[in-house]
């Protein structure tokens, strides 16, 4: 359990007593705000690929490390991971123009190669990431206008 997870567990117990300018409702609201902020921070943390990988075909943000001559560069991009178990006909992506797969006669389909692929938001194109993906994090949900009561 990391520090944020531990803090969330402690805060969820809500053991503070209100002072003379506060009510129990104020304390409850403060705890709920703190818990929500910590949960959001936890959900948005970078996860090293050595710790775990995302589920296959789930779009995430990745940190890519590139090595050129005596320099190392890091950048981020949207990507998805393929675990090497999905057939092209079962994939959520169109693999028709991708030529790095082997045809399986018995199954009558192509098994998608294991690896990372850069996702392109406004086009149906993507490509394999040839450099080193070292960490990933979930992509946040798109902004939505709050409805007023």
Structural notes for this entry:
- The protein is of the alpha+beta class and 149 residues long.
- It has two domains: 3-43; 47-138, no CATH class.
- It contains two helices and eight strands, in the order H-H-E-E-E-E-E-E-E-E.
- Strand 4 and strand 5 form a beta hairpin.
- Helix 1 packs antiparallel against helix 2.
- The two termini are 39 Å apart.
Secondary structure blueprint with pairings:
Elements: H1 3-12, H2 24-43, E1 47-48, E2 60-68, E3 71-82, E4 102-104, E5 109-111, E6 115-119, E7 126-128, E8 132-138
Antiparallel strand pairs: 1-8, 2-3, 2-8, 3-6, 4-5, 6-7
Rounded to the nearest angstrom, the distance between the terminal CA atoms is 39 Å
The strand line-up of the biggest sheet is 1-8-2-3-6-7
Portion in helices: 10-25%
Note the overall shape.
elongated
Structural class: alpha+beta
Q: Mean pLDDT across all residues, rounded? A: 85
Q: What is the makeup of the main sheet?
A: 6 strands, antiparallel
Strand content: 25-35%
Low-confidence residue ranges = none
How many structurally independent domains?
2
> How many E strands?
8
| Radius of gyration, CA atoms, in whole angstroms | 22 Å
Compute the number of helices.
Answer: 2
Order of helices and strands: HHEEEEEEEE
């Amino acid at each position: 359990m990391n520090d944020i997870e531990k803090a969330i567990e402690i805060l969820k117990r809500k053991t503070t007593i209100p002072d003379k300018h506060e009510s129990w409702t104020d304390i409850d609201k403060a705890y709920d705000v703190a818990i929500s902020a910590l949960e959001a921070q936890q959900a948005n943390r970078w996860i090293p690929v050595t710790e775990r990988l995302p589920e296959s075909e789930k779009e995430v943000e990745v940190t890519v490390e590139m090595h050129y001559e005596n320099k190392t560069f890091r950048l981020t991009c949207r990507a998805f991971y393929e675990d090497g178990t999905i057939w092209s006909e079962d994939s959520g992506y169109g693999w028709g123009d991708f030529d790095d797969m082997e045809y399986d006669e018995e199954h009558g389909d192509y098994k998608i190669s294991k690896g990372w692929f850069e996702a392109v938001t406004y086009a149906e194109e993507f490509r394999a990431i040839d450099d080193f993906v070292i960490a990933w994090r979930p992509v946040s949900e798109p902004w939505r206008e709050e409805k007023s009561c």
